[in-house]
Amino acid sequence: GSLRAQAPGPQPLELKEVFTLFQIQYNRSYSSPSEHARRLHIFARNLDQAQQLQEEDLGTAKFGVTPFSDLTEEEFAQVYGHQEAPGRVPNVSSKVVPEEWGKS
Amino acid sequence: VPSTCDWRKWAEVTKTVRNQNNCKCCWAMAAAGNIEALWGIKHRQSVEVSVQELLDCNRCGNGCNGGFVWDAFITVLNNSGLASEKDYPFRGDDKAQKCQAKKHKNVAWIQDFIMLMDNEQAIASHLATHGPITVTINMKLLQHYQEGVIRATPTTCNPNLVDHSVLLMGFGKTKSVARMPAEASQGGALTRPRRSTPYWILKNSWGPKWGEKGYFRMHRGSNACGITKYPLTARVDKPAKQLSVSCPP
Prior knowledge:
The complex is a heterodimer. Chain A is mainly α. Chain A is built from 3 helices and 3 strands; from the N terminus they run E-E-H-H-E-H. Chain A has helices at residues 15-25, 33-56, 73-80, and strands at residues 2-3, 13-14, 62-63. Chain B has helices spanning 26-43, 51-56, 69-78, 120-130, 181-185, and strands at residues 5-6, 112-115, 133-137, 145-147, 149-150, 164-173, 198-203, 215-219, 232-235. In chain B, helix 1 packs across helix 3 (69-78). The A-B interface holds A 6, 46, 49-50, 53, 56-69, 71, 73, 76-77, 79-85, 89-92, 95 and B 20, 22, 24, 26-27, 66-68, 70, 115, 117, 136, 139-141, 143-153, 156, 161-165, 174, 194, 197, 199, 206, 209-210, 217, 219, 229-230. Strand 3 of chain A pairs antiparallel with strand 4 of chain B, so a sheet runs across the interface.
């Protein structure tokens, strides 16, 4: 199918064209045709997800093509996140709550 | 708590938006940003501190392989401060190098660090009266974010799975948009009325080309993406005038 590009234009752009624009904008190249095809597939899925987020969002946020549009959710989390934070902060004194005042 | 607050407007608060690239060091960049901002506010002097020192001298010694904001503050306390970004620049490579802290002069230091209450009103109050703080959020929605205020729900962004540290710089409200009956009578699409949305202003570490010039906004008042889970900040104070004391005879 075809997807509308981020920039307003008279005609919707084909997915491959949008992907080429993404590659130019963010200077992306891939090692082989198969890798290119895989990234194009991920890119298409991400655009779908961005569109879904756009429909679900209750605020004013805009979702769409970003520098991370050719990464899977797992790759994105692995590259840019830190490990998941623990249940509580180690070796940091607990928060002071008024209820505890006056207790020994 | 004032209705708006934006520490980006404070002259001595560092304006540079860092880029962590492929290095998992958001925790170090958020902590460095916190110290720089507080130093700028308290000392009226702009500084840029070394993120690489936080990576190399971290007690876990795992460089770009992740860490926590509290580890960064512990490193600053252990090293009695931080060198400048200029003297000890960011490399962002995968291997942690030997700690070079002793080779360089410290340009900023902290007295302590604290975790604030998990309450957005308390966080706003502290932010408005002391300066920017670090928070750790679920970054899932940021992969596709371009601009505007993210209003997440626990379903779209689990507040318990937080994995990205950023710097909370301020807060505000969007302007409310009224329904425009003239547009409807002319056959145009009816603009949905929109109430003003309270938001947080957050500074990311993915470079100035990402989001809103490196920043993003999230809804305030709904614990969006777990923003209240780990609100941490260093304490940067000017040394108090030491009162002379003498031991009672």
